[in-house]
Amino acid sequence: MDAGPVPAQLCASEERREAHPGEECHSWTGAGACCGAGGQFCDRGDSYRTAVFVTGPAELAAAQATSAEAAQYLAAPIATVILPAGPFHAAGEYHQDYYKSGDIIITRFGPRTKASAYRLYRESCGRDARIRQLWGSAALDN
Prior knowledge:
- By secondary structure, this protein is α+β, with helices and mostly antiparallel strands.
- It folds into two domains: 1-89, no CATH class; 92-136, no CATH class.
- 32% of the residues lie in helices and 14% in strands.
- The strands form three sheets. It has a two-stranded antiparallel ribbon. A two-stranded parallel sheet has the order 3-4. A two-stranded antiparallel ribbon has the order 5-6.
- It is globular and about 45 Å long.
């Protein structure tokens, strides 16, 4: 059953591969890899589910290996699924680099820049605290 689009980071471009040789195109520490299939952190629902998209056997093997390593590290199953890549559709301009935007928006905290609102969301959601709890010194700052 297709539940609609899944948020994704396009990281397989030739330009990115040249700039970051050997970098995996997925990170188990930054997403809600073990938060359950219904979303991540305080964001629940199909549009917040996590997935790793692969374009061939080598990427599939790498994704499976790193998923197994993450599951072993956490001693918990990984909810993030591994799927074949399909067409990539960029999110609307509003979503691009939201976390660092200086545009003012109205939030439940009052008027804030998008960057400030995103930091407040991460803190109030408990995202960063949960990542650090799960991953300890392996936590990424993303």
